[in-house]
Amino acid sequence: MATALALLKDVFGYPAFRGQQAEIVDHVIAGGDALVLMPTGGGKSLCYQIPALARQQAGHGTTIVVSPLIALMHDQVGALHEAGVQAAFLNSSLSMEEANAVERRLARGELTLLYAAPERVTTPRFLALLDAMHAQGKLSLFAIDEAHCVSQWGHDFRPEYRGLALLHGRYADVPRIALTATADGVTREDIVAHLQLGQARQFVSSFDRPNIRYTIAEKKDPTLQLLRFIEGEHAGEAGIVYCQSRKRVEEVAELLCREGLDALPYHAGLDAQVRQRHQDRFLRDDGVVMTATIAFGMGIDKPDVRFVAHLDLPKNIEGYYQETGRAGRDGLPSDAWMAYGLQDVVNQRRMIDESPAAEEFKQVQRGKLDALLALAEATDCRRVRLLAYFGERSQPCGNCDNCLNPPAVWDGTEAARMLLSTVYRVQQASGLHFGAGHIMDILRGKETEKVQQFGHQRLSTFGIGAEFSEAQLRGVLRQLIATGALAVDASSFNTLHLTAASRAVLKGEQPVRLRESIMQPAGRSRRRERAGARSAVPAAAASLTGDAQQRFAALKEWRTRMAREHNLPAYVIFHDATLAAIAALAPRSLGDLEGVSGIGAKKLETYGPGVLDVLQALG
Ligand code: ADP
Ligand code: ZN
């Protein structure tokens, strides 16, 4: 029997296991149960694919992979075919005849892996098939992907997953591996309880994604900021832009297209066929920017998404981490970029307040929003805060905006006290509540019509904050609202109200520290000069010389042609990193190509000659 490492090299073309993969793989090959918690892009698939291969070679038969996502099954099976592995899937996208053909292959023991949807696995018909395989000792392993779907606390609860518990009862001697990228403790306990994995060994990886750079910018002219970010850092590269509303998605996609980007909209209001077409384009073509609501992204395992941008605030840190986690699965430098402003805070608070949910539930939502706002307002390392949220301690990362360009911080405590006492005084004087603009006018001593109408120029705080700019005061207001020291009443013209938390700030017990507001959005050239800024060279090719760059470009073109011919996403043929390694190596023979990371035996045979032709044509 080939060792796990030999299979990794020969079939997948990778020189070494990552992180805990080797341990997990050994444990499962030996027949142990496992629960694997690993971040997106950590390499979960190999944790069951290698055992599937090894165990089949040892005569144990087929591995059944339970997966909830049709698109993902399709791509995984496609990628396995390319690597020369016998795999198939069973789901609702197949016709009756196609499904029957797959079942026959399964019964004949021709498959190393079968992917199936959870509702399929527990049908009497499928269980009868499994029974027959089991009786012959040909049921090797169950891999349960996206195992958090079993938990009703998660956002992806799928009742069908609960039915999977019967697998253990029925086939107690068949090992099981459950995998998820959702980290929190409640979900983990749920998985163990509902899938009866009490005996399983747990493998918990760090949730850090060191190749992702986190940036949270102050929102000024968000679409312009977005455009500068994409053009400056990710021209021609694939990315996802998340917006809150369908309308906004459409607008932003249009604007990006007008600016010459290859952008497509995606949201639940679009026709299913249009959605599918846009998703396929995103997966298959190079450099498409998907502008989407959060309806997009589940089950997208495109490895070369170079950036995820948020034009609106996500709901909470879990959402933010899941969405941004779609960047850089291939481990190459990637960006998580967000524009954030006062209106976001107001909107999110309002959405929670106005939702019909029970007060207890709303309280939880508010707590989660507060944690996200604290991340957005932070002037220290974003990653330290993110990981701390998931229970991991870490050191400043050197790869987030705050680490790379420590923000100038000013003490806004005095300004905050002035703002709060003005809110207090206008209410006392007139019994009415006012909005942010009016409060700032009073503080800065502007005798507007409204000020005169209410006699607010006579308030003791009138003009005492003249030294502060409007931008500064807005920053203070945002932080006060973000931290709950000030509330906005959306049902009555966004008026400001004091809260129980206002007192500590008013008394000066609670310091307010703010990042210095940069009035000019950082332009393109300026951004490039800044410490740690990357150039617009594709991430994978960043370290290549001129000649190698040329080879890289030619290889990418060739890959696009191959992808079209084989009707596969480009990355299933070769990852960018593999193309970059080939470009650097400038191989002249198949022997030279052997051992390049990402080129297994089957791919060497299928694509090796084509690659050599491309390079030869360049001279
Ligand atoms: P996950 O399911 O955990 O999000 P995947 O299994 O899709 O992650 O793996 C992410 C990417 O990393 C894939 O493109 C995969 O080919 C690559 N990968 C996984 N393990 C290794 C390894 N040991 N060496 C090189 N690349 C790897
Ligand atoms: Zn950092």
Write the layout of secondary structure elements.
Layout: H1 4-12, H2 21-29, E1 34-37, H3 44-57, E2 62-66, H4 70-82, E3 87-90, H5 96-107, E4 113-116, H6 118-121, H7 124-135, E5 139-144, H8 165-170, E6 176-180, H9 185-194, E7 201-204, E8 212-218, H10 222-233, E9 239-242, H11 246-258, E10 263-266, H12 272-284, E11 289-292, E12 307-310, H13 317-324, E13 334-340, H14 342-354, H15 359-377, H16 382-389, H17 401-404, E14 409-411, H18 413-430, H19 436-443, H20 449-453, H21 470-482, E15 486-489, E16 495-498, H22 502-506, E17 513-515, H23 524-529, H24 546-566, H25 570-573, H26 576-585, H27 590-593, H28 601-618
Parallel strand pairs: 1-6, 1-7, 2-4, 2-5, 3-4, 5-6, 8-13, 9-11, 9-12, 10-11, 12-13
Antiparallel strand pairs: 14-17, 15-16
Helix pairs in contact: 2-3, 14-15, 18-19, 24-26, 24-28
This protein binds adenosine-5'-diphosphate and zinc ion (ZN).
